[in-house]
């Protein structure tokens, strides 16, 4: 049993309801996949071909026109044609110049000048070599870009190759609008669900929430920022801050999800009182926090470096990139093994907690679907990248949004539970009000008794004053009588003395 009285809808899910929830969740996801498949292409690609001749110095000029900020960024790569019957893998030194112009007749501004880079050319027999990326401009500031690439003949046997193809790739403006519209829809839906959740539970103490409901509250807040309501700033802002926000929002949400999965599956084999922070949460938070820091540093350094150096290529130019990536992969493998072990132990021990079985199977079913689809999308993104297919973008965002919405439905408190807790709160409030009224009455009685005592004191004071006045008056009258008696005595003595003198 949960330590809280806040029961969840998932606790009363029958098998039919479980199947219905899983089917509805799957329909949501596959609908987003279909919409992604028919969406506009992510990239617009333009190609220009040139010839390689064995001259003493080779220079290739190319230009790209009619770009704007809606194109987001620009990538320039070169493919060299191998005309031999054997494989080739050889380093070559390239010298690159890059210029930008606001208009056809505008002034030419130097962006990169005489920068030397060494790239490795790899190609099979009679085929195009692997693409060599030279430029990745992450903010379109000019409408025209001009490139001048020189190949030092001492570092490349040009007779091995027959031609070169320039590829200019930039975001399709239709896809950018597609991204903004669906991103806005996801933001609105996530805010609506968050407000509904907080409104319904606003009068309920956080202490009453179950373990699952606390996590859903955190994930709903993170989902709003994962959908990135600040995406339009990326189009109009050139600084590092939009890139920083984008990386931060995505990674925080993803690692919260990874922590949530590990904590949830591991929690089913522990009683609530056994889930202490030090022994239960801290080890999980530690391993994922270290992995978060590694990934955040790698991605952010790469993206920020691109803003300052459009020739930057992490695989070749960033020292220590591969060791850091290997450490990150090792940590992720440790996490996967831990997660698999937690799922295995949860299945073995869930029979001891019969009341948690519906919650466990509800969570397990939709989470396994989510993890499998996420792995598929990551694989597709690795092979083709998000920039080649809108399916990856829309399906990934739709997957996480509908997953959190489904969790919110299953872990939402039942109506009876809300009414019971609110009734208990109202009863407690009524008891408190009765106690307050009782205290007020007692205070009033004490006050009235004090007033009566004060009235009695006032009356006594007045009586005392009257008595004092009477006493004073009596004393005065006595004094007057005594003075009169003394005067009479004096007069009698005088008269006696006069009589005696007359006799003499």
Automatic annotation (TrEMBL):
> InterPro entries attached here?
TMEM181, TMEM181_GOLD, WLS-like_TM
**Source organism superkingdom:** Eukaryota
Q: Where are the transmembrane segments?
A: 20-43, 176-197, 218-241, 247-265, 285-304, 324-347, 359-380, 392-412
Q: Where is the composition biased (Basic and acidic residues)?
A: 472-504
The residue ranges of the TMEM181 GOLD domain are 72-171
Q: Which residues form the Wntless-like transmembrane domain?
A: 172-414
Tell me the protein's name.
Transmembrane protein
Q: Which organism is it from?
A: Anaeramoeba ignava (Anaerobic marine amoeba)
């Amino acid at each position: 049993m949960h330590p809280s009285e806040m029961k969840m809808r998932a606790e009363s899910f029958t098998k039919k309801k479980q199947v219905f929830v899983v089917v509805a969740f799957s329909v949501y996801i596959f609908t987003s996949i279909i919409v992604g498949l028919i969406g506009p292409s992510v990239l617009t690609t333009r190609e220009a071909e040139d010839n390689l001749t064995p001259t003493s110095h080779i220079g290739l000029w190319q230009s790209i026109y009619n770009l704007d900020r809606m194109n987001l960024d620009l990538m320039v790569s070169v493919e060299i044609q191998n005309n031999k019957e054997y494989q080739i893998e050889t380093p070559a030194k390239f010298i690159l110049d890059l210029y930008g112009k606001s208009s056809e007749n505008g002034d030419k501004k130097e962006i990169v000048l005489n920068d030397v880079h060494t790239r490795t050319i790899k190609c099979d027999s009679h085929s195009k070599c692997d693409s060599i990326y030279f430029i990745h401009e992450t903010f379109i500031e000019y409408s025209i870009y001009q490139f001048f690439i020189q190949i030092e003949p001492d570092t490349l046997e040009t007779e091995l190759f027959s031609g070169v193809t320039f590829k200019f790739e930039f975001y399709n403006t239709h896809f950018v609008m597609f991204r903004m519209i669906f991103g806005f829809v996801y933001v609105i839906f996530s805010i609506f669900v968050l407000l509904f959740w907080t409104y319904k539970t606003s009068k309920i103490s956080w202490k009453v929430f179950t373990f699952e409901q606390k996590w859903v509250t955190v994930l709903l807040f993170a989902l709003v920022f994962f959908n990135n309501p600040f995406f339009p700033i990326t189009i109009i802002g050139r600084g590092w801050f939009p890139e920083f926000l984008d990386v931060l929002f995505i990674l925080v949400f993803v690692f919260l999800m990874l922590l949530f999965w590990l904590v949830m599956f591991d929690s089913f084999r522990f009683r609530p009182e056994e889930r202490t922070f030090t022994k239960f949460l801290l080890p999980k938070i530690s391993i994922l926090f270290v992995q978060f820091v590694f990934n955040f540093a790698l991605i952010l350094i790469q993206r920020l470096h691109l803003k300052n150096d459009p020739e930057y290529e992490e695989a070749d130019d960033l020292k220590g990139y591969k060791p850091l990536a290997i450490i990150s992969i090792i940590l992720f493998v440790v996490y996967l093994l831990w997660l698999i072990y937690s799922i295995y132990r949860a299945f073995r021990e869930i029979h001891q907690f019969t009341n948690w079985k519906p919650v466990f199977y509800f969570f397990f079913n939709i989470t396994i679907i989510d993890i499998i689809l996420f792995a598929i999308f990551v694989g597709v993104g690795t092979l083709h990248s998000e920039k080649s297919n809108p399916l990856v973008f829309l399906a990934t965002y739709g997957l996480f949004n509908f997953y959190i919405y489904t969790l919110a439905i299953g872990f939402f408190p039942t109506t009876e539970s809300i009414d019971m807790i609110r009734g208990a709160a109202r009863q407690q409030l009524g008891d408190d009000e009765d106690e307050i009224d009782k205290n007020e009455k007692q205070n009033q009685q004490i006050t009235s008794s004090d007033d009566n005592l004060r009235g009695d004191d006032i009356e006594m004071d007045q009586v005392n004053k009257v008595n004092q006045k009477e006493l004073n008056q009596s004393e005065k009258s006595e004094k007057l009588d005594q003075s009169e008696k003394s005067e009479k005595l004096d007069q009698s003595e005088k008269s006696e003395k006069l009589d005696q003198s007359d006799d003499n």
